[in-house]
Amino acid sequence: MAIDRVVVEADGGARGNPGPAGYGAVVRDPVDGQVLLERSDSIGVATNNVAEYRGLIAGLEAAAELGAARVAVRMDSKLVVEQMCGRWQIRNPGLRPLAARAAALVDRFDSVDFEWIPRDRNRHADALANAAMDLAAGRNPRSVPPTESAAAPAGAESGGAAAVAAPGSSGVRSWEPRPADTATRLVLVRHGATEYTAGGRYSGRGDVPLSDLGRAQAAATGRRVAELAPRVAAVVSSPLSRCTETARAVAAAVDDPPVAIDDDLIECDFGAWEGRTFAEVRDRWPAELDRWLASTAVAPPDGESFVAVAARAAGAVRRLLSAYPGQAVVVVSHVSPIKLLLRDALAADDAFLHRLYLDAAGVSVVDYWPDGGVAVRSVNETAHLPTA
């Protein structure tokens, strides 16, 4: 679906100028700051300015992919902004082809506005660019902090979600008991088992149905959720059938509220790895797998990075906190979104993702308070599940 207006944040850099270089670009919804697309890549040896232009080009291309009509570009490169606005001449002949390429992309939109912003307002694109520079230098890429990916862009239009503390925000620090009735309780449920679960395969956007065991697990999970939250305001699910079937089983156990679908709760897009075993991926894509495991900013071939998954999952949670204050909501999703939400709720780093195991139909509970306070009540409960 085409989007009328987007915000593009872009950056690039080089270690040594010229040196190992890379760029990053983020396309956001201008209302709630949700990340819609992101792009990053290492470009070998280049200058800072070349990398910055490459970041701008990647951001404009991503905005065009979304069908945007109007674009607000924000960069901390004064040179690129001033040159694209025509106020500074392009004296470096190496930049002219890049500027012409960017200008051709600008002509594809109804309007493009450029704004210079300080670096601390461009942290997500800067972090993506730094991870790409690490790869260009042959180093393990650093992670993009989860608070960068979930933060609304500076100057974003106000919206209902803006008043809600983002998942992963530090909030208040206190050991004092809090009133439970003022918290929004999210009961996070991974879908029941499928054939891919049993076979140890990457299961992302493919619509793999529940197995017989998975259906039994879903029914048992519904009974457990009824104990944790007898009054459930909503059951919200990923659009894939393994989640919607699990969600319906849960809803049937808790007074049968309608199951709502939120596309942002869908699993990571594993691209070329979809449906393949872990061993197959290790054998065929060893370098790509190592890069992916080393950084949440790196996507599988033709797939999606965990930075992008974290951003959309956090956006879904912000909407739920705004819509259901002080109530209980069941969220039925997949391993990647749930791991990332728990990482942020615990204010953990990315190493947490490799150390947490989530079973099929496992249940985790997180309470969120309006002032940003977060309490993780349980992680991956499985005692309710039947054995195979």
UniProtKB/TrEMBL annotation:
Pfam families documented for this protein: His_Phos_1, RVT_3
Bias-annotated ranges (Low complexity): 148-172
Record protein name field: Bifunctional RNase H/acid phosphatase
Gene3D superfamilies per UniProt: Phosphoglycerate mutase-like (3.40.50.1240), Ribonuclease H-like superfamily/Ribonuclease H (3.30.420.10)
SMART domains, per the entry: PGAM
Species: Plantactinospora siamensis
Region spans: Disordered: 138-177
NCBIfam families: PRK07238.1 (NF005567)
PANTHER family membership: BROAD-SPECIFICITY PHOSPHATASE YOR283W-RELATED (PTHR48100), GLUCOSYL-3-PHOSPHOGLYCERATE PHOSPHATASE (PTHR48100:SF62)
